[in-house]
Design a protein that fits this description.
449 residues, Helix Hairpins, alpha+beta, Beta-Lactamase, Heat Shock Protein 90
Length: 449
């Protein structure tokens, strides 16, 4: 299953992760550098103390080993005989047995403790034979303890920083993406309400950033789309009006030719003219109805309608077509089922659904119309046991001029406008219509008013 994550969440995760990496890297570098500087400082301090004691010792009289001027001089320094015998200074039991080694400060680990050790040999005061070892020792445990404390503090502070970063960043990102939510809402409203006159709201004091420019561009695009749709609707309406008169003339002339036909050939030709004229007249009528509904100019007389009577009329009007195919049409409407509707429009919609069930039904099949109350709503079901509709066509059958099977639809004189007209009529009533179907198992249309 594909995970759905918002852009705001992905951005928050991305820069929080980046912040975590940066904090860890920076603190590691700072911590490592601080530790190394601390070690260097300890080494310099030990070397300085050993040097100072060495210089003072070299100026004293033979046999005098006490340094009484400043006891701080012996804070980290001790003096040994050349053979390693302790003389004076700070005695460190851990370091006492380490061999003396002239050179640079070195790191020694004794009993799990780290020390900086610096040894310096000196000939001692003037006149004294033999020399001394001056040893400077300073523990780095305090530095290690400070480093561990810093790590503990970092482990406490870093999550808090990341938490504040995540919440603060998400809040800022959410505010920044507010125009996107506005765009999405407007797009959904246009899609749900089929109202292309809606526009994305742009505040007068809005910052002219990329999202502002996107909103302006989309509004301009919606203006063009609305103009194109308006022109298309106007063309459909105008063309339908213009076609009504010539079609009526053709139909009248065809019926006249049918009356005066002298032989079967002429009758056949005249009948074709009449049938096709009626078919085109029906198409134009539907186009006009759709155009009026689209432009909200369709008269809508809402009144209390007895659904049982209305459906009986629809069934009776389709009986001739049903008998031609040997299909039984029946209804089951509870007595006193009343709906508020435009009687003429609702009759047209239900009649169309019944006619479809007959046209695409199997021989000796049936079309059943039923109704029931659902709380304060009424459900009307038109079901047949005909050829059915495959799944890939179900969401397209409401599209104008869409035909599932061109050959089959030509046979029945279908233009692909019937179901589109039905959906528009039901929507005009504030209702919904859905379909259930599968090939070979018939089709079921469900209207909710």
């Amino acid at each position: 299953m594909k995970k759905i994550t918002s852009i705001k969440t992905r951005i928050t995760i991305w820069y929080t992760t980046l912040m975590f990496i940066l904090i860890v890297v920076v603190l590691s570098l700072v911590g490592g550098l601080s530790y190394q500087l601390s070690i260097d400082s300890i080494e310099k301090n030990v070397v300085l103390q050993v040097t100072q004691v060495t210089e003072k010792l070299s100026r004293r009289q033979p046999g005098v080993f006490e340094i009484v001027g400043n006891k701080e001089e012996f804070k980290n320094v001790s003096i040994y005989e050349n053979d390693g015998k302790y003389i004076v200074g700070q005695y460190n039991y851990d370091i006492a047995n380490i061999p003396f080694e002239e050179g640079i400060p070195r790191r020694e680990n004794i009993a799990g403790k780290d020390y900086i050790v610096y040894d310096k040999s000196t000939p001692g005061p003037p006149g004294r034979h033999g020399g001394f070892w001056i040893r400077g020792v300073e523990s780095v445990s305090s530095t290690m303890l400070l480093g561990r404390s810093a790590i503990i503090i970092m482990l406490i502070i870093i999550p808090l920083i990341l938490l504040l970063t995540a919440f603060g960043g998400y809040y800022i990102t959410k505010r920044a993406f507010k125009p996107v939510n506005n765009i999405i809402k407007t797009a959904n409203d246009i899609s749900d309400q089929k109202d292309v006159s809606r526009r994305i709201e742009i505040k007068p004091d809005a910052k002219e950033d990329e999202l502002h420019h996107l909103s302006v561009t989309l509004n301009k695009m919606l203006d063009k789309i609305e103009n194109l749709i308006t022109q298309e609707k106007q063309f459909t309406s105008d063309a339908s009006h213009e076609l009504r008169t010539p079609i009526s003339v053709i139909l009248a002339q065809g019926e006249y030719l049918l009356d005066i036909a002298k032989d079967e050939k002429e009758k056949e030709l005249a009948q074709t003219i009449v049938d096709k004229s009626k078919q085109i007249s029906k198409l134009v009528s539907r186009l006009l109805l759709l155009a009026r509904i689209d432009s909200r100019r369709q008269k809508f007389n809402k009144e209390k309608v007895d659904l049982g009577v209305l459906i009986d009329i629809a069934v009776q009007s389709t009986k001739e077509l049903a008998s031609q195919k040997g299909i039984l049409v029946f209804s089951n409407i509870p007595e006193g089922t009343i709906v508020e509707a435009d009687e003429s429009l609702l009759l047209s919609a239900i009649t169309n659904l019944i006619s479809n069930g007959i046209k695409y039904g199997n021989k000796s099949g049936h079309v059943a119309v039923s109704a029931s109350k659902l709380d304060n709503k009424t459900q009307i079901v038109v079901a047949d046991n005909g050829v059915g509709i495959s799944k890939e066509h179900l969401d397209k059958i409401w599209t104008r001029f869409y035909r599932v099977d061109d050959v089959r639809n030509d046979e029945y004189g279908s233009s692909g406008l019937g179901l589109s007209m039905v959906k528009s009529i039901i929507s005009l009533h504030g209702g919904t219509i859905s379909v259930k179907s599968s090939p070979g198992n018939g089709t079921e249309f469900i209207i909710i008013l």
